Amino acid sequence: MTTPAANPSNAVQRDVPGPFAPYTLRLPEAEALPLVCDSPHSGTRYPADFGFALPFELLRKGEDTDVHVLWQALPGVGATLLAAEFPRSYIDPNREVEDIDPAMLAEPWPGPLQPSEKTRLGIGLIWRDAGKNGLNPIYQRKLSVAEVQQRIADYHAPYHAAMREQIEGAYDRFGAVWHLNLHSMPADSYESLGIRTDKPLADFVLGDRDGTTASPAFTDAVAQALRKRGFSVALNDPFKGVALIARLGRPAERRHSLQVEVHRGLYMDEATRERSAGFGALQAALTEVAQELAAFVRSELPAGSR
């Protein structure tokens, strides 16, 4: 199996001729475990045909910048790590292909559409807005059906194919699979979601769609590994998980999928996207968390499959 080449500098790139390799894939560098992890929103290569009409700095607010770097120790403990190269604002791999706002299109979509709450918020499969309340529209034009279909074919579909291959390969070999869907969240997450609350945003939010996509034991193992290192952890508040874990998580079949959101204030300057002084300490803590999760997965496997 070939692994698409990574963006070697991990720096943001504008106007990249396309199509380019839609993801990077790091396979286990230790004894393989059925622990498959992905960072669908940390891509920083912006296709040349994007055609956005707002300042680039505003567009970048959608990035989960450097999340895959924070979790870079995962392959070293036996996990697989998949990371998108393209930005979610161009096409979002954590959405279903029917999650499109028809008002964004220049002509009727040729099949059924199912716009979700994410589309209402302007962040469906194809993002409409780069900020809350529709104040930062991304386009000053309608998108053709053909260009949206091309984005799906070049980026969204290959990402999902790679994820499916890793998940099913692990499941076929071990009879079980544990999946971490890795993200970061802005400090104003409650406000952006239209939620009025005085609660502070936790350092980490774990989403299992109200207990439906992962076993309580897996969710608790992740929560306890984080709390042991001094982080505050919330469950499904305010993020429950979207398309990827909904599609993959079937705990009754030993298919466990959990979304993990980290507060951006722990590791970056949200205005500049630059790593902050806390980046190294957080990365080191998540290395220890990865080691604990590998041990948890090992403990869940029958002796003969380890």
Plain-language structure description:
The chain has 306 residues and is of the alpha/beta class. It has a single domain, classed as Zn-dependent exopeptidases (Aminopeptidase, 3-Layer(aba) Sandwich), CATH 3.40.630. Helices cover 28% and strands 15% of the residues. The chain contains eight helices and nine strands. The protein has helices at 56-59, 67-70, 117-120, 145-174, 189-192, 216-227, 243-248, 279-300; strands at residues 13-16, 23-26, 35-39, 45-47, 80-84, 177-185, 204-207, 233-235, 255-263. The strands form two sheets. A seven-stranded mixed β-sheet has the order 2-5-3-6-9-7-8, sandwiched between helices. Strands 1-4 form a two-stranded parallel ribbon. Helix 6 packs antiparallel against helix 8 (279-300). The longest helix is centred in the middle third of the chain and has 30 residues, at 145-174. The chain starts with 12 loop residues before the first strand and ends in a 6-residue tail after the last helix. Residues 1-9 have low confidence and may be disordered.
